[in-house]
Write a structure and sequence with these properties.
Elements: H1 2-37, H2 44-65, H3 76-103, H4 106-113, H5 116-128, H6 134-153, H7 159-184
Helix pairs in contact: 2-3, 3-7, 5-7
Length: about 190
């Protein structure tokens, strides 16, 4: 009985974390678009810097003040070889997302972001020679086709915003691959 209750609490906390992540993600994207559109703010890098400062302050509060999470000590070599590249790619992803929001609608940016599974598979195949089953390749066809159809028919298409979102998608894929390597110890040797 107690095990079942613990399992239910664990599932509830997981679902709550997913809903919270989704809500914060949607809120940040819509607020950023509002800043660019309604306030006519022309500096996406400044918005990104404010985002990073708020994230750093929030993390410091959670770790150092509230002590909700422990401070994890990382070996300096690991910091530069494994964590810095992932952090750098994450920053590039945020900046490109904000740049794209400056020029294209949120809906179109999110549609381009849905291209991430395809770019992740292609990057892993091209760069790291990872094998994928034919069913995975086949499942990417409707994703790529839908994005192409959406891009061709987008009324407020802007090439600069589209390219920023597309490169942001590549950055997201790279970040995902780097995170997988951190979690599973995958080596990038051919």
């Amino acid at each position: 009985m107690e095990e079942s209750l613990l399992c239910q609490w664990s599932v509830f906390r997981s679902l709550l974390a997913i809903v919270q992540w989704w809500a914060f993600n949607v809120t940040v994207i819509i607020m950023n678009k509002w800043i660019f559109q309604k306030l006519d703010f022309k500096f996406p890098l400044t918005v990104s810097c404010v985002h990073f400062i708020c994230s750093a302050v929030g993390a410091s509060l959670v770790i150092k003040v509230l002590k909700l999470k422990p401070l994890i000590m990382v070996d300096p070599e690991d910091r530069w070889r494994r964590i810095f590249p992932m952090s750098f790619v994450f920053c590039i992803n945020i900046v490109l997302g904000n740049v794209s929001l400056r020029y294209i609608p949120v809906s179109f940016m999110q549609t381009i972001k849905s291209f991430t599974p395809a770019t992740t598979v292609v990057l892993q195949w091209l760069v790291w020679s990872k094998y994928f089953d034919w069913r995975i390749w086949t499942s990417l066809i409707p994703i790529v086709g839908g994005i192409l159809l959406t891009s061709i028919t987008e009324l407020s298409f802007n090439m600069f915003g589209f390219c920023a979102a597309l490169f942001g998608c590549l950055a997201t894929s790279t970040k995902t691959i780097l995170a997988e390597s951190l979690l599973h110890g995958y080596k990038f040797d051919r």
